[in-house]
Amino acid sequence: MTKPALILENVLAHEKNRPDFVYMTQPIGNGQVIDYTWRETLKQARSMAAYIQSQNLAPGARVAILSKNCAHFIMAELAIWMSGCTTVAIFPTESGETIRYVLDHSEASLLFVGKLDTWPNQAPFVPASLPCIAFPLAPTNEFAKWDDIVKQTPPLAGDVQRGASDLAMIMYTSGSTGQPKGVMHNFERISAATDGIVKTLIETLGDRDDNRILSYLPLAHVFERAWVGASSLVHGKTHVYFAESLDTFIQDLNRAKPTMFISVPRLWLKFQQGVFSKMPPAKLNLLLSIPILGGIVRKKILKGLGLDQVIVAGSGSAPIPAELITWYRKLGLNLLEGYAMTEDFAYSHNSTNDINAPGCVGVPLEGVHARISPEGEILVKSPGQMVGYYKRPDLDAEAFTSDGFFKTGDQGTQRADGLLKITGRVKELFKTSKGKYVAPAPIENKLNVHPMIEMSIVSGVAQPAAYAMVVLAEDIRPKMKEPEVRAQVEQQLSELLVKVNAELAEYERLQMLVIASEAWSIENGYLTPTMKIKRSRIESAVESQVPGWYAKSGSVFWA
Hints:
Blueprint: H1 7-17, E1 22-29, E2 32-37, H2 38-54, E3 62-66, H3 71-82, E4 86-90, H4 96-106, E5 110-113, H5 119-122, E6 132-134, E7 144-145, H6 146-152, E8 167-172, E9 182-186, H7 187-205, E10 211-215, H8 222-235, E11 238-242, H9 249-256, E12 260-263, H10 265-278, H11 281-288, H12 293-305, E13 312-315, H13 322-330, E14 335-339, E15 349-350, E16 363-364, E17 369-372, E18 377-381, E19 388-389, H14 393-399, E20 406-414, E21 420-425, E22 430-431, E23 437-438, H15 440-448, E24 453-459, E25 466-472, H16 483-502, E26 510-515, H17 535-542, H18 546-551, E27 556-558
Helix pairs in contact: 1-8, 2-3, 2-6, 7-8
């Protein structure tokens, strides 16, 4: 790859060359929005940067952001960078304990507080001694206000430079396997990765002046930060719309009319289940098979989802069932799966229009090298490779091979054309009492495509056979008090178990399906902020019940 301009250089070029281009649209309630041009975006960011500099923080000081996605998140990051500091973004749904850990571990000198749903529970964990600044849409607080500071502070002048090796951000992982780790990224590497992302998007979308995207996945997560936040800063011709709330999501989508839309498997599945709640799968398949009528139905469904203008859609962050990709493509949505990690700034593999297959995660992006270790682990060397783990040189030594490839922890296979297939997580493999290893992810994907199932885990360490625990779909859960519905669910899940087991090797077959007594959510601690399952947390919660399950007769029962 050719050495790209650093990300800030691109932003300052947009300020000069397209000052009146509307870069961001922020909803502020009651259907009202505020548009921010490049000129206005940089004017506010420059004023805030001057204010941060006036606080005499040490060079590279960490400045944290705790906020849902909004225009001021982007402005704050630019201000942090222009002031000579380093960004630490915290997931807006994090528990108070994790927020305190990240603030302490990163030694944050300042905190921006923005849109939040659970601030009263989080606020007590912010140190009283930590200076805080409130975004315009923040909950009620006593902090200094963004708008007041921007009005009172003359903007930083001139072309602000940052060194290629300067630390741009520390990204704390979502903590699916324990305490979050701080992944350090410098300007050179995020710029190289983002340049590659923009090239990929232009190849897929065309070099459009009307590219539109809705930003709603957490900007604290690398997928959204790289493919939406950073790519829009570099490209300069992408109009970023923000979502107001979960309740207004469809209206937000229809306002944006995105040409590009990215999501995680959990939400792609939820969209599908929403369609199925209005039209059973069998009926939908029949309608789609009818000439002319099928085309009308496809357009109606995509318009109802707010995705009728989408040229390319992406899925990442976790494995997505191959059947789900096939279903969306049958609707006419060009859904492509990718694969990357926080440690490579989301720059690793992506499916293309020419090389893709449901169940595979794509080919190496430009400048990326990948190979499979003798043990079956995927090893990646990316232009976006992290500098290291903050304060954890011991983890750095464990994370890389002697020749600089990152050990992803994922198992996979690679075709001759480079197309990669994920077969499981190295650490998720478990051994039954029969001495055979079971990979949970492929089995879970077979379960998750059933319209009655929202999510699942496969477990059974040292047991005679594996089992699966499932969460029922949201529209089914309230009906479980009705005996007839309950019996139908049990019967259909029993049939699903037979079907799935028929597709598995003998040692992988599930002895039972256990229906979870409560949905797994971010709030109850069973999902990470990016909706990945906290497998060990769920297994620990049911550990005492497992022997009793194996002692029961039958194949489907309730936890």
